[in-house]
Design a protein that fits this description.
Chain B: GO terms for molecular function: glycosyltransferase activity. Chain B: Keywords: Glycosyltransferase, Membrane, Transferase, Transmembrane, Transmembrane helix. Chain B: Belongs to the glycosyltransferase 2 family. Chain B: This is Cellulose synthase/poly-beta-1,6-N-acetylglucosamine synthase-like glycosyltransferase. Chain A: Keywords: Membrane, Transmembrane, Transmembrane helix. The complex is a heterodimer of chains A (about 350) and B (about 475). Chain A is about 75% helix and about 0% strand. Chain A has about 350 residues and is mainly α. Chain A has a domain of about 120 residues. In chain A, helix 10 runs parallel beside helix 12 and helix 16 packs across helix 18. The longest helix of chain A is centred in the N-terminal third of the chain and has 57 residues. The radius of gyration of chain A is 29 Å and the shape is extended. Chain B is an alpha/beta fold and about 475 residues long. Chain B has 14 helices and twelve strands. A ten-stranded mixed β-sheet of chain B has the order 3-4-5-2-1-6-11-8-12-7, with helices on both faces. A two-stranded antiparallel sheet of chain B has the order 9-10. In chain B, strand 1, helix 3 and strand 2 form a beta-alpha-beta unit. In chain B, helix 9 runs parallel beside helix 10, helix 10 crosses helix 11 and helix 11 crosses helix 12. The longest helix of chain B has about 40 residues. Chain B starts with a helix and ends in a 15-residue tail after the last helix. The chains are: A mainly alpha (about 350), B alpha/beta (about 475). At the A-B interface, helix 1, helix 4, helix 8 and helix 18 of A face helix 2, helix 12 and helix 13 of B.
């Protein structure tokens, strides 16, 4: 019996070993090919680099730039990716986008239909980077596929947002995203499309509401200050807090009184964001309370109070006097901290 | 008659070892399959693109980087320099000098023009007293905390108390980070809206790579066989083990070399424990335990991308010490939390992870060691015993070499980090020899660790670093 077992095991071990050796053979050949291909790509990149540069920077005509092989396509993709990161001017961006469409459109169209997830993902990254709006239809088609993964969907939505796709709001409503994902998508919308989301704020799910307010705060969108104040007045909890944060970023409110009272709120988050608001508006009436908040039991509130005080023109002097006169070590510590920030 | 009985005992023993090995082999194969599918999906994904978005995100969570340093004058400046160039919006670096007896403190003060600051540190975890706190006058986000010697865990706790940000990461003195390391490990945390509370990345071996000013210039392969074997071992552990375990939230180890934790949960769990050798694993177990006890749905994940390069021992004596220490650390963590084993209250951690770590990681080396002794004995006894020896040897080939070879190929199949064809062939051929020398050797050292523990020897042994960076 044991002999049979040994035979059996020996066969398994040997065959697995053979299999692994075959795999090794395959992988080394693949690697050698990859290395050769990489060298060819680098060569081609060096060859066309100056030409590409003059096309993008000076608007020269394309001549002799072929993208018929996969090596040339890859080289072109890499060069354009490098340029797209450093370009500033609108004309240059437009020319780069045209060049990308000219050379790579067919390639990405095929890649979007690829069976490999990573191929589709890479295509999506580049379509957005190169602003290849001519592929919009293909991206919309991809968005309607049933077995699309969550990561792909996020990226499709980003692209649709970047391209300011008209039916965007409907597409987005079908999906349940996290706050972070909503935010990064909404950030890309222009004023008109973003307006639609502001208008339907009350119907939105909490993550979407947070994201809308965060985008207002990130963009410091002063045109939404009345909307944000309204939200602050009519909501509670996290939404209220986010609205307050947005107001602090915008740095403008019509009537300061309710916000001064908020400095006495029992929730530390509200005290903290209110302190932030007072600092960014530089409302003198709030200074005495801010000094008190340097003694707050929550570190975040103390820190924010310190920062807010330091934003006033005479802030340094106030902090200095706290440092010299206060008996509370925490308040002194915080005052010291903000006096020495960015040394 | 006597002979027959003797044969019975021997065969029962041989079968016990054989069955054990078969079980472990099956288990490994399952994990290998899971990892393979996961890694393959991301093959050739343009990773830089995937992380770019997080860079200009206003809401990216700030991170405190804690670097405990005990007699690290050889590498400390380099590691801090590599940290300073990290690609991340907001972070602070806290070097904790754990009462070094060499020039660590002076070197730091000189290099970064450190200046004494007076600051009140909130003591959320009890630690040895802090002597002085310094802040760099050139870089306001670089701090140096000088404290009385109390061991690595104590130094980390001081760093935790001092840190200002909601996430922290602990880093060994002589590690080099990839520039995008933080983006990579913070991504799951941000993506999940902080449902993920700790995340680790894979660690690679820096020996043999060309490093300058805290940056990897060229990835290379060392010529030292011990180092090559350790590379294979790391590949196997990280690519196979951890990806597979992470998929199902079973992860019990975030390597001490690189991981980001939520400060809130770490402090709630009580910070690092000072009287154990494996403080990093211990903390992860405690966080898991806390999560299950509080019934909150939080996760610990692992990112397959290599994010950190670390130096490994190049000679036998130090490697031996390290392995003995690791094994004891493992045992201590498992023993302290033994109540979790097979406890359905702790879900999959109790029912799968803990038994796995007991049976495969902890008992594995002991059983393997017995197997090796048995093999040698059988060879001397001759006759029918030779067959047992062959049987066991074949099994341990499957168990050791084959999985390592598969891990090397998996690396090349999916991540392709090593640039030359010869590197892969070399790694592959070395992994073929694992069963013959490296594995018995490390198994023996691990058993020594157990032995030391049994006789109550508590000397730890320091790891002397020579500094990998130029």
């Amino acid at each position: 019996m044991i002999n049979q077992d040994i035979l059996f095991l020996a066969i398994i071990t040997l065959s697995l070993m053979c299999l692994l050796f075959l795999l090794l053979l395959y992988l080394t050949i693949r690697k050698a090919k990859e290395i050769k291909k990489r060298r060819e790509i680098e060569d081609y990149k060096n060859k066309i680099n100056t030409q590409i540069f003059s096309i993008i920077a000076e608007g020269k005509r394309y001549r002799g730039i072929g993208c018929e092989t996969s090596i040339k396509q890859k080289a072109m993709e890499e060069l354009l990716s490098r340029y797209v990161k450093i370009l500033e001017g609108e004309d240059e961006k437009k020319r780069l986008s045209d060049l990308a469409s000219h050379c790579l459109q067919g390639y990405y169209r095929k890649r979007l239909k690829s069976k490999k997830w990573s191929h589709r993902m890479n295509a999506l990254y580049h379509i957005e980077d190169f602003y290849m709006i001519k592929l919009l239809d293909e991206v919309v088609i991809l968005s309607k596929k049933k077995n699309i993964t969550h990561q792909e969907m996020i990226h499709v939505l980003r692209i649709l947002a970047t391209f300011q796709y008209n039916g965007f709001q409907e597409v987005l409503y079908y999906h349940d995203l996290s706050e972070y994902e909503y935010r990064s998508i909404l950030m890309r919308l222009n004023h008109d499309l973003f307006d639609q989301f502001v208008l339907s704020f009350h119907k939105s799910t909490p993550p979407l509401q947070y994201a809308i307010l965060d985008v207002i705060s990130l963009k410091k969108a002063i045109e939404y200050r009345f909307f944000t104040e309204n939200i602050f007045m009519s909501y509670k909890g996290e939404v209220k807090l986010r609205a307050l944060k947005a107001l602090a970023e915008i740095g403008y409110v019509s009537n300061i009184e309710p916000y001064l009272q908020l400095l006495y709120s029992s929730s530390w988050q509200e005290r903290m964001v209110a302190a932030k608001l007072i600092g960014s508006i530089q409302e003198e009436k709030g200074i005495p309370r801010l000094i008190e908040l340097l003694h707050d039991q929550i570190w975040w509130v103390r820190s924010q109070a310190g920062q807010s005080i330091s934003q006033f023109p005479n802030g340094k002097a106030i902090l200095q006097s706290v440092l010299e006169t206060s008996k509370d070590t925490f308040a002194r510590d915080m005052a010291w901290d903000w006096l020495h920030k960015g040394v | 008659m006597l002979n027959v009985q003797w044969l019975d005992i021997v065969s029962v023993f041989a079968w016990f070892i054989a069955v054990y090995m078969v079980i472990v082999i099956v288990f490994y194969s399952v994990i290998l399959m899971i990892s393979m599918l996961q890694l393959r999906k991301e093959y050739q994904l343009d990773r830089i693109q995937a992380y770019e978005d997080y860079m200009d995100e206003f809401y990216t969570r700030p991170v405190s980087i804690i670097v405990p340093a005990y007699n690290e004058e050889a590498g400390i400046i380099q590691s801090v320099r590599s940290l300073l160039s990290v690609n991340y919006p907001t972070f602070e670096i806290i070097v904790v000098n754990d009462g070094s007896t060499d020039g660590t403190l002076e070197k730091m003060i000189d290099q970064y023009e450190m200046k004494v600051i007076s600051k009140v540190v909130r003591k959320q975890i009890n630690t040895k007293p802090i002597k002085t706190i310094y802040q760099s006058t050139i870089l306001s986000n670089l701090f140096l905390v000088d404290k009385e010697n109390g061991g690595k865990a104590d130094a980390l706790n001081v760093g935790l108390n001092f840190s200002h940000y909601p996430y922290f990461c602990s880093l060994d003195g002589d590690s080099v980070l990839e520039p995008d390391a933080f983006l990579k490990v913070m991504k799951p945390i941000i993506d999940s809206n902080e449902e993920v509370i700790a995340s680790g990345g894979s660690v690679r071996i820096a020996n043999g790579c060309e490093i300058k000013n805290g940056h990897i210039l060229k990835i290379g392969l060392s010529n030292n066989p011990l180092v090559i074997m350790q590379i294979i071992e790391y590949l196997r552990a990280f690519l196979m083990g951890r990806i597979g375990l992470s998929r199902h939230n079973l992860l019990l180890i975030i390597s001490g070399a690189f991981g980001v934790f939520s400060k809130h949960w770490s402090i709630e769990a009580g910070g690092y424990k000072t009287d154990t050798v494996g403080e990093d694993m211990e903390l992860v177990v405690r966080i898991h335990r806390l999560l299950k006890e509080k019934k909150v749905n939080k996760k610990i994940v692992y990112v397959p991308d290599p994010v950190c390069w670390t130096e490994v021992p190049e000679d036998m004596t130090i490697l031996r010490r390290q392995r003995r220490r690791w094994h004891r650390g493992l045992f201590e963590s498992l023993w302290t939390h033994r109540g979790l084993t097979f406890n359905p209250k702790y879900g999959s951690i109790g029912v799968i992870s803990f038994p796995y770590f007991w049976v495969v990681e902890f008992l594995g080396p002991i059983i393997e060691f017995l197997g090796y002794i048995f093999m040698v004995l059988c060879l001397f006894l001759g006759g029918v015993y030779i067959e047992f020896a062959i049987l066991l040897f074949l099994l341990s080939c499957l168990y050791g070499s084959l999985f390592s070879m598969a891990a090397v190929l998996l690396e090349e199949w999916s991540l392709t980090k090593y640039p030359k064809v010869t590197d892969i062939i070399k790694l592959f051929l070395y992994s073929l020899t694992e069963t013959i020398w490296y594995r018995p050797m490390t198994v023996f050292w691990r058993c020594e660790g157990v032995w030391q523990m049994l006789i109550g020897d508590t000397s730890w042994g320091e790891m002397k670093r020579k500094g990998v960076s130029k």
